[in-house]
Write a structure and sequence with these properties.
By secondary structure, this protein is of the alpha/beta class. Helix content is 41%, strand content 15%. The chain has two domains: 86 residues, Leucine Dehydrogenase, chain A, domain 1 (Rossmann fold, 3-Layer(aba) Sandwich); 124 residues, 3-Layer(aba) Sandwich (Rossmann fold). It is built from ten helices and eleven strands.
């Protein structure tokens, strides 16, 4: 039986540390604020946003929520982003994705001030990640790294396989593993011999968005298996990209869904918001 990596426990430790720092800053009269913008009524996004607000409350940030109707125009959303860019109470801005179809994610993200872009989605921050200058950490991949570190398994020299090449997870994940001297392979829908490649991985990160796609024949005995997926199975139950029941005997370490990567993404968002707040107040 694999060791189950407890994302809730690791994220609680990260948030506790942030809470301590935030309370010290408050004693100096410094308050930190995160603005969260949600457009429309996607149920999953509403849950994510609520969890982000709860995390802000826990660590002691001020959170400002802007819930806009689905019909919001690009002009209106850009006007809000501009207002938040210039609002001194706001250290971090997060526009929850996906946006309704008539809005272009890229145009909106490009207009968030890079020093308030706590998602690290702006091209300036993406470029910095590429060269290993992490003003802001890419939240989900950074959370994955914390979970890998919690196992005590060293990344340097290991075969690391990332399934998925999205801008939010797959690509930045590969960079973080590479910067830690992992030997990294990125797989995607056109990859041939996916099973063979995955089964050579010491560290496997699944971020494809296909329910229970990774079965035990994809993994190496004793591997670290990190599941970024958030899907519904045939019974409508939340599940990852990894077939947990099938893989839990063979893996060395494995994350559950829920309770694995999800809580870490939010903890890393809190970390970035603290970084932004300190930057804006000239503290390093
Ligand atoms: N939608 C799904 N994950 C994320 C995330 O990390 N940030 C934002 N802004 N939207 C998301």
């Amino acid at each position: 039986m694999a060791n189950i990596i407890d994302g809730k426990a690791v994220s609680a430790q990260v948030k506790e540390k942030i809470r301590g720092e935030v309370s010290e800053l408050k004693e100096k009269g410094i308050e930190i604020g995160l603005a969260v913008v949600i457009v429309g009524d996607d149920p999953a996004s509403q849950v994510y946003v609520r969890n982000k607000e709860k995390a802000c409350e826990l660590v002691g940030f001020n959170s400002y929520k802007y819930a806009l109707p689905a019909e919001t125009t690009e002009e209106e959303l850009l006007a809000l982003v501009d207002k938040l860019n210039n609002d001194d109470r706001v250290d971090g801005i997060l526009v929850q994705l996906p946006l309704p179809k008539h809005l272009n994610d890229k145009i909106i993200i490009d207009n968030i001030r890079p020093d308030k872009d706590v998602d690290a989605f702006h091209p300036v921050n993406v470029g910095k990640i590429m060269i290993g200058d992490y003003s802001f950490l890419p939240c989900t991949p950074a959370g994955v790294m914390e979970l890998i570190d919690s196992t005590g398994v060293e990344v340097a020299g290991k075969q690391c396989v990332v399934i998925g090449r999205s801008n939010i997870v797959g690509k930045p994940q590969a960079m973080l593993l590479l910067h830690r001297s992992g030997t990294v392979t990125i797989c995607h829908s056109k990859t041939r011999n996916l099973k063979e490649i995955c089964s050579g991985a010491d560290i496997l990160v699944a971020a494809v968005g296909r329910a229970k796609m990774v079965t035990s024949d994809y993994i190496k005995e004793g591997a670290v298996v990190i599941d970024v997926g958030m899907n519904r199975d045939e019974n409508g139950k939340l599940c990852g990209d990894v077939d947990f029941e099938d893989c839990k005997e063979k893996a060395g370490y494995i994350t559950p869904v829920p309770g694995g990567v999800g809580p870490m993404t939010i903890a890393m968002l809190m970390k970035n918001t603290l970084t932004a707040g300190k930057m804006h107040h000239g503290i390093d």
